[in-house]
From TrEMBL:
This is one of the proteins that binds to the 5S RNA in the ribosome where it forms part of the central protuberance. SUPFAM superfamilies: Ribosomal protein L25-like. Part of the 50S ribosomal subunit; part of the 5S rRNA/L5/L18/L25 subcomplex. Contacts the 5S rRNA. Binds to the 5S rRNA independently of L5 and L18. InterPro entries: Rbsml_bL25/Gln-tRNA_synth_N (IPR020056), Ribosomal_bL25/Gln-tRNA_synth (IPR011035), Ribosomal_bL25_b-dom (IPR020057), Ribosomal_bL25_C (IPR037121), Ribosomal_bL25_long (IPR001021), Ribosomal_L25_dom (IPR029751), Ribosomal_uL5_bac-type (IPR020930). Keywords: Ribonucleoprotein, Ribosomal protein, RNA-binding, rRNA-binding. Pfam families: Ribosomal_L25p, Ribosomal_TL5_C. Belongs to the bacterial ribosomal protein bL25 family. CTC subfamily. Residues 99-177 form the Large ribosomal subunit protein bL25 beta domain. Transmembrane segments: none annotated. Residues 7-91 form the Large ribosomal subunit protein bL25 L25 domain. This is Large ribosomal subunit protein bL25.
Length: 226
């Protein structure tokens, strides 16, 4: 994604939870921008435009502060766990031509062979790419793959200009044989049978320990040594 979304920001001098709540009540988002040895700059971003821009993974932003433009990437986005609200954004300064390391989501396409289960063991891959040409996804096809197929990170075709940082031996996609309905029912029956044996065992032990009808339980006689 090479086109940077332009966001007009304002510097802020008030900090703390109270100041952040006030910013959010006004429909804006508190943020901090840092990197390349520069001092952190605390800013306020427009809420709606920022929310829309950050819907894209690894979105490149042009932050305009006091008439000056600065390219940046969202390093950390803190979101409200319930409401569709961004609470705070950490931005890292980048430059054209600079290479950065980012986590890129893996997207599976196609359908594997019948009666198989496809497991995505790595939902993202860490890649190095130019800051102005960051991929949004890594596409992996599972079309027609048979049970027993495994796709490692090093075997995946990466977007142009990207370099793999994740361990090449990391398992990304695992295709296994689906459990048939008959096999599943057999496993459930076996589990129920084992559970029944476990429940019966304590009952049998209790019956053996109980005195027979007409008998009384006597305490063992004490012995003394001369």
């Amino acid at each position: 994604m090479s086109d940077a979304t332009k966001l007009a920001a304002e510097k802020r001098t008030d900090f703390g939870k109270g100041a952040a709540r006030k910013i959010r009540r006004a429909g804006n988002i508190p943020a901090v921008m840092y990197g390349h040895g520069t001092a952190p700059v605390h800013i306020t971003l427009p809420g709606h435009d920022t929310f829309q821009a950050l819907r894209h993974t690894n979105a490149l932003l042009t932050i305009v502060v006091d008439g000056k433009e600065q390219l940046a990437l969202a390093k950390d986005v803190q979101r409200d766990p319930i409401k569709p609200i961004i609470e705070h954004v950490d931005l890292v300064v980048v430059r054209k031509g600079e290479k950065v390391t980012v986590d890129v989501p893996v997207h599976l396409e196609g359908e594997a062979a019948a009666e198989t289960v496809v497991t995505l063991d790595h939902a993202t891959l860490q890649l190095e790419a130019e800051a102005t040409h960051l991929p949004e996804t890594v596409v992996v096809s599972v079309e027609g793959l048979e049970a027993g197929t495994q796709i490692l990170a090093g075997a995946i075709e990466l977007p142009k200009g990207a370099t793999l940082v994740t361990d090449p031996e990391a398992l990304v996609v695992n295709v296994t044989q689906a459990i048939s309905e008959a096999a599943l029912e057999a496993e459930l029956a076996e589990a129920e049978a084992e559970a029944g044996i476990e429940h019966e065992a304590p009952a049998e032990a209790a019956e053996e320990a109980a005195p027979a009808e007409g008998e009384s339980a006597e305490a063992p006689a004490e012995t003394t040594e001369a």
